[in-house]
Each structure stands twice: as C-alpha cells, then as structure tokens.
Amino acid sequence: MISEIFPRKNYFVRPPVANVDILVLVASTVEPTPSCLVLDRLAATAVYKGVQPVLVVTKTDLAGEKFLEEVYRGSGIPVLTTHGPGKGEALKALKKMLAGHICVFCGNSGVGKSTLLNALLPKAQAQTGGISKKLGRGRHTTREVQLYEAFGGLLADTPGFASLDMQRGGFIPKEELQYAFPEFEKHVPACRFTGCSHTGEKGCAVIRALEAGEISKSRYQSYLTMYQEARAVPEWEREKK
Q: What would the pLDDT profile of 194-204 be if each residue is shown by its tens digit?
C-alpha cells in the first residue's frame, strides 16, 4: 500500500523522470557529430532544476576530444572521456560520481549510452544498436526509460534527443538563464547595470570574461541563442511551460 507521497525536488516531462541528482550527457566525437547547442540546452535545464550535469565523451579513438574539453573547461560541468566500453579511468571516475545518487543518462541516438550502461552494469545488458550509414545518425534502441539499481542508487537510460521535450517542463525564463550557466555566476555581480542581460551592455562583466577567454565562445553563443528564444516567448505563454 502507498502510505505517504513525498514531494519531488525536480522532474522532467519527457522523459518522465523525477528526483534526479545527476544528468549524464553522453556525446560522441563522431558518428554522430556532437552539437554543443543541444548539450548546452540539456546542461542548462539540468542546472536550472538543481541537477548536476556530467559530460561523457565517447569514441575518442575515432576523433580527438580536445574541442569539447576546451568548450567546457571552467563551465562547472565535469568532462570524462572514453574510447571503448569498460576502458580507461573515466569509467572508475563515473562510478564514483554516481554512487548513491539517482542518475539519468541521455544523449543523441548512437553515441553509446546503452553501451556505456552495459559497461557500468554488465548484468543489465541494455540493448545496443549501430549507426545508420545512410542517415549518419543512430537508430533509436532505447524506447522507454529503464531504471537500474547501481552503486547504492539508481541509473536511468532514456531515449535519444528526438524524444526529449525541452519546451515542456524545461523552459528557463530569460531573467534566470544566466544562473543556468555556472561560469557566469562569479561575474554577474560585477556587471555595471542591475538586470544586465549579458547580450551587449556596456560594462558587462560576463562579456569581459568572454573576451579574456574565461568563458568559451561556444558556451556564450548557446546562451545568446537560448536568451533570444526565451525573450520571444510571451508572458501569457510562459505559464504553460
């Protein structure tokens, strides 16, 4: 019988998961090529909901991972790299991070989410699939959210990006978007004007940090794109998101 229902500290509409502690973003160096904007949308949504994002870069034996390491250096998002299932120190570090937490794995189809899950939990034997050579992207092999007991917590494997609904339950108001980018936080108080949008104002400390190389250009460009999208949403429509 259900005797008590505790409040949820966070939730995602699609995939339907709640009380998440860590969001593991799995991205491959190639096949498919990573989209920093998509990764940044997911990472920002995670931070906004009080979830720690972690980036795991796969297929580093096929192409270098230096680009992604540079983009996310100083972002507050840990970056782990692996070139094959069950290999390298990345797997040990990831196990340590996940211990005792509720963790969700997500990423584009074909990046190796299920393969990585199998390496972490061999008994789970999550279904894996190949890459569509014609389309250049992965086939969807995970069709529903699956929970696995692991390391004193729970791991969840989710469908690919095509099934993630970032608009429903994932909307971030433009005024709060700056707090979803951790590397902005220490610079925001130094901006000349209260309510600075960090999109071109004089005396903006975030832009100074960008020019000094303390914030990556790729991350800042994602912020601008997301800010303009949030700005275009009417007040009356925000209530639905």
A: 999 999 999 99
